[in-house]
Design goal:
Two copies of one chain form a homodimer. Chain A has 334 residues and is α+β, with helices and mostly antiparallel strands. The first copy, chain A, is built from 13 helices and eleven strands. In chain A, 41% of the residues lie in helices and 19% in strands. Chain A is globular, with a radius of gyration of 20 Å.
Chain lengths: 334, 334
């Protein structure tokens, strides 16, 4: 694989130009460009420039409204709904997080339902931003039904990622963000592109047989949940919370209505935010947690979730990007 | 294994007598007896009569106060704290659930921190009770540090069970309740008692070597998380939420302070409750969810989490209990 070095500013500028060319207005294009730049900054390649073509396709097909103005609706004393109005998710999320953080700090806990959004990124930007406001955060989305439940052979769950963040005042939050499938779809697509094998147990081919070939899984095959029936239960929880709980579609419903333009389908998302300062009643809650986290960080063979991304973030230099991918995005940005 | 048939009423009466003998007052003994009877009713043997000796030991050692009067404290508009005052958890939980359900129905979402509680049961009674109030529910507890994080060889997490319930008006809720270790401690202790092997990957022996002998894991060995680094992240989330987030001890702190009488150590618990009716804004939220759940239930090889327990519950007849266990409890009840 040949690579091309791009600075973070160049990444932002390329994405912004590609989105504006495809019809996004400034606020929407800026929000998506920040999301993609930050993904490349943190080494989260499957959610970086790799996604630009899909974002552009969804604007060109008319599925996503690049001029949408997401609206926040107060639903009850501790819940809000954000109608993304068919925007790409990032602008809706920036507005949602600010409102949700304020509400959780006043109420102790708050929830946000996001509807009519098109999510095509990682989830850690959401939980990390809430944690940077001193809040414990949890979020999940569903997608199209690619994943079979444990014991089954028909796909019904999305890859249903779940992200959690723990605030660490003065430090980067502890953050995990994981597909509840054995592997994230973006990682399978990248493995297929790069001709790499995936571990047995990741998925089945179109004939329902186990395979290590990611292109067989991505083309007519199905994914399996991580961790057997326990991981399958977590996938089920995310599926229910990101759909009926927020008033949005299940993964199998989304698959039936999406126009399959290669961009993000419409869907829902839940966000929960909890104030540990309020709930614990302990002004030293963070010191208490840091004693525990220090033990974990000092344990041989163990790394805190999110630590590699935060390490990557310290590098302000250019990123080496797949040259073919850079060419694709440059064409779109012309 | 020889067994002795006991009716559900006989189970309740035996447990109640054993707890009263050991110093519990009526309200505390009743709450624990209901919890144990319901566990046996649902086939959840590792949380049934098997636990009575431990409950009794914790009363006799003075660690648990059988006359405690758990108190509910309103902390913020959407959060409550329940000081269990060193009671066994069931009485504190009955009070917590009633207050939390009311708060979540008014606010849309609410959280409860339980502190100074001694939890020795399954978690599904809590989430199921909240779901029977029309709420989505999530709870978790930690314990003593028996479980190593993925990649590590030192125990730092408890078995950290997580339970989730989805309300199904007119039906039993969908409920999962799972240790985030590869196996629950109670199940390992039962396997050791019955001389059964456990799957490789469940834990390591005292020398840090993989073993299928549950007694080697339970005596000086360590447990591993389910599902590799993803399951380990879930275990970490439960550990943080059941300790620093609610103002209680981490598993490793509990292990240092517990008197090791064989009963439940003191600790914390978090409970979250969300109104899908409020958050979704969809009066048909349940019908929508039922369409999805019907698909899942009709899928070959798939069973909804909790379905086996709810099936067991329909049997109102006597339960066949390990005879040695019955003798132990009868002695305590004399």
């Amino acid at each position: 694989m040949t690579t091309t070095p791009l600075t973070l500013d160049e990444i932002y500028a390329l994405v912004y130009a590609a989105l504006r060319n495809a019809g996004s207005n400034d606020v929407n294009a800026s929000a998506v460009s920040r999301t993609i730049r930050n993904a490349e900054r943190d080494g989260s390649h499957s959610h970086g420039l790799f996604r630009v073509a899909g974002y552009v396709k969804s604007l060109k097909s008319g599925k996503v409204d690049g001029n949408a103005d997401p609206e926040i609706i107060k639903v009850s004393p501790s819940t809000i709904r954000v109608d993304a109005k068919n925007a790409h998710a990032p602008l809706a999320l920036e507005r949602a997080i600010s409102a949700l953080a304020e509400l959780a700090q006043a109420q102790g806990i708050a929830a946000c339902a996001i509807v009519r959004s098109h999510h095509f990124a990682a989830l850690w930007p959401e939980t990390e931003a809430l944690a940077e406001n001193g809040l414990v955060a949890l979020t999940g989305v569903n997608y199209k039904n690619w994943v079979a439940p444990a014991g089954g052979r028909e796909p019904i769950f999305g890859t249903n990622p779940l992200s959690f963040a723990w605030p660490r005042p003065g430090k980067s939050p502890l953050v995990f963000d994981m597909a509840t499938s054995a592997m994230a779809l973006g990682d399978i697509q990248i493995a297929a592109r790069d001709g790499k094998e995936v571990p047995l147990g990741t998925g089945l081919n179109a004939e329902g047989k186990p395979t290590t070939d990611p292109s067989q899984i991505a083309n007519g095959g199905i994914l399996l949940p991580f961790g057997g029936y326990k991981g399958s239960a977590i996938a089920l929880m995310v599926e229910l919370m990101a759909s009926a709980m927020v008033g949005e579609a299940f993964s199998y419903e989304t698959a039936l209505t999406d126009n399959n333009d290669g961009g993000p389908p419409p869907g829902g998302q839940f966000l929960l935010a909890i104030s540990p300062a309020i709930l614990s009643g302990n002004p030293q809650w963070s010191t208490h947690a840091e004693q525990f986290l220090a033990k974990l960080e000092n344990m041989e063979g163990v790394r805190l979730p999110g630590a590699r991304r935060h390490q990557n973030r310290l590098d302000t230099g250019p990123r080496d990007i797949n040259s073919e991918l850079v060419e694709t995005v440059r064409e779109l940005a012309k």
